[in-house]
Design a protein that fits this description.
It is built from 14 helices and 19 strands. The chain is of the alpha+beta class.
């Protein structure tokens, strides 16, 4: 036998220790012997549990990730360092509904700082015990986990497995913890495309590409909180071009045609969908506006402190702006005065401003009147069949404007 090689365990196992341990455990040589050194005591290797990443030696249990001691390896003809693999450091790839729950709850600026991985779902069995214990995000169970094949599954009521046999593009998963990776917003959108209706998927797209997250128990009572966009229409389009054939990609591509970046609230998203979705879905089929678009105002017309004014729904070529005035934000006299100054500044810059309140949006006749006026300003003639359109529009409204507490709508 050759001279034994040694390396010291640390709280986090070193790369050299990984290489040595892996080479010892998985070497095909029958002349390989592993010993564990605890101080001056040398304990022969008896058994290794690959699933838990633990070693059993003479009734003692040493943990590769946190044990202290020295691993020794005596090498035979097959000796030498092998390329390392992390032992006892299982990574879990959460996906689908659990990934969606994560992205809705996480702060975008923090979660998106995680490293975009080149890795793919694990090929070793996962049982979820460790994942269930270390769940700082309080994700609901069963957690949805992505695995490489059905042989990796283990019976566990707290896990819902999804099998992904294909390789994913680099960046499809984001590292959010030492042992936890989550489907990126782009991949999560594709995964949910096979589980949501088209209208629900479009709503999700507006949320992911917008500056808000739905939050029922919001402290301000609005039903959502402000946050940075998780992705964009261009990023979704780029990702979809790399995952052609992936389950859900076709529906995701279909929904992408009706998305826009920059929505600031669920009601802005609902209003945009009502005005721009095609007739067959119950919308008025108007061209897609830019949401919360900055507009430069001439200095002699500017009477606000801002260098730019942002239009809620803006059609730049026609210089038409639709402003949504939420009751919660625009109800006080000071705000009303500022809005009047703002509208005058936009009008002086040549922008046609149409204002809509929540009450008007909830009124079918009022919204129809605004849609007709908009169609004339945009040069888009409304041509739809009655009564089919009326029924489809009513169905769309019932989905986008449900009878819920008013705080949910602005």
């Amino acid at each position: 036998m050759q001279e034994a090689q040694y390396c010291t365990f640390r709280p986090l196992i070193s790369t050299y220790a990984e290489d040595t341990l892996h080479n010892a455990l998985f070497s095909g040589s029958t002349r390989t012997r592993l010993t564990i050194h605890f101080g001056s005591k040398i304990v022969p290797f008896r058994k290794f549990d690959a699933n838990s990443g633990t070693m059993r030696a003479c009734g003692m249990r040493a943990y590769g990730a946190c044990g202290h001691g020295v691993v020794g390896r005596s090498a035979g003809r097959q000796g030498g360092r092998a390329r390392g693999r992390r032992v006892g450091a299982m990574e879990y790839f959460i996906s689908h509904q659990t990934a969606l729950e994560f992205w809705k709850a996480a702060q975008a600026s923090v979660a998106l700082e995680g490293k975009r991985l080149r890795k793919n779902p694990p090929i070793k069995p996962v049982d979820g015990k460790e994942l269930h214990v270390s769940n700082p995000w309080n994700l609901t169970t069963p957690m949805h986990i992505l695995i490489s094949n059905k042989n990796v599954r283990r019976v566990n009521e707290s896990l819902q497995y999804h099998i992904a046999s294909r390789q994913f593009p680099t960046g499809s998963f984001i590292q959010v913890d030492s042992k936890l990776a989550v489907s990126s917003p782009e991949l999560c959108f594709v995964q949910m495309a096979s589980e949501l209706s088209l209208i629900e998927l479009i709503e999700l797209g507006y949320e992911f590409c917008g500056r808000y997250r739905l939050e029922e128990n919001n402290k301000k009572g609005r039903g959502f909180r402000d946050d940075l966009p998780l992705t964009s229409v261009n990023k979704l389009d780029s990702y979809l071009s790399r995952v052609a054939g992936l389950k859900g990609s076709k529906n995701a591509r279909r929904a992408l045609r009706y998305l826009a970046d920059g929505s600031a609230s669920p009601m802005e998203s609902a209003l945009t969908m009502l005005l721009t979705l095609p007739y067959k879905f119950g919308g008025y089929g108007l061209p897609m506006p830019l949401l919360n678009c900055p507009v430069q105002v001439a200095k002699d017309a500017k009477k606000t402190s801002k260098a730019k004014l942002y239009c809620d729904l803006y059609w730049p070529e026609e210089q038409v702006d639709v402003e949504y005035d939420s009751d919660a934000y625009h109800a006080n006299p000071a705000r009303i005065s500022k809005d009047a100054i703002r509208r005058n500044a936009l009008t002086s810059a040549g922008v046609t401003v149409i204002t809509l309140s929540r009450k008007q949006i909830n009124n079918t006749a009022e919204l129809h009147r605004v849609a007709v006026d908009l169609s004339k300003l945009l040069g888009k003639r409304l041509v739809y069949k009655m009564p089919e359109f009326t029924m489809r529009h009513a169905k769309l409204r019932s989905h986008l404007l449900p009878k819920v507490p008013q705080e949910r709508l602005w």
